[in-house]
Hints:
Layout: H1 21-36, H2 39-67, H3 79-87, H4 93-123, H5 125-131, H6 133-143, H7 146-149, H8 154-159, H9 163-172, H10 193-215, H11 222-234
Amino acid sequence: MLRSGIIPETEKNPSETIPDLREIILSYEKERINEEFSGDQYIIKIYSVKRELDEIINLYLEKLLSIYMIMDINYGNDPCAYFNKLLNSDVNDIDRLIANMGIELCQFREKISDYLYSKLNNYMPNTVKLIGYDLCLEFLWKSGGLKNLVKYPASTLQILGAEKSFFKHMRTGSPSPKYGILFNYPGLSSLPVKKRGKIARIIANKMAITIKMDYFGRSGDVQSMRDYILEKMKN
């Protein structure tokens, strides 16, 4: 009977110089798992949970609106505000349980967000200062990690998230996209349409700098970059 992990051809004449395949595979898998759940990869996985939770909360709200449509609850497009107001309304016990479930989902999401912000602030502090937590998480998630982000030129950062429009442009010759995820940069959507592409390019150029700063563990004057962007947006 062959010993576990020993190459069959060496069973009759085992040698200390012949590697144990089982040990090699186990060692490789341990390294791969550690890499998969370390650094930005762990942040990305937790952020994926938060994204799913956002969708669950929105779907839950949609169901409740259909149930309590006769109740005029002003919640300002904030599901968590709706759950709280529903709980404080004149409803029965089962309705309170339903509202409490929504509140617990919101509280769970808030704890995940706090954790992500803390981790991201230590991992990509310069980019966070430039574009904010939520947008930085989107870039990290969309790219698959900081190691990928640092390889992207500013032009790729500018249209990241608009892949469908870009491939349509390449295939049919339609107008190329001017921005992707960057459309959510504070204030960009309120600018005139013809000016958004120029400002998005400026933001992407600054991002390319802060991402490299984060990757190589450097720091710099990010505030002046933000001021420059704001000045261009005002002009």
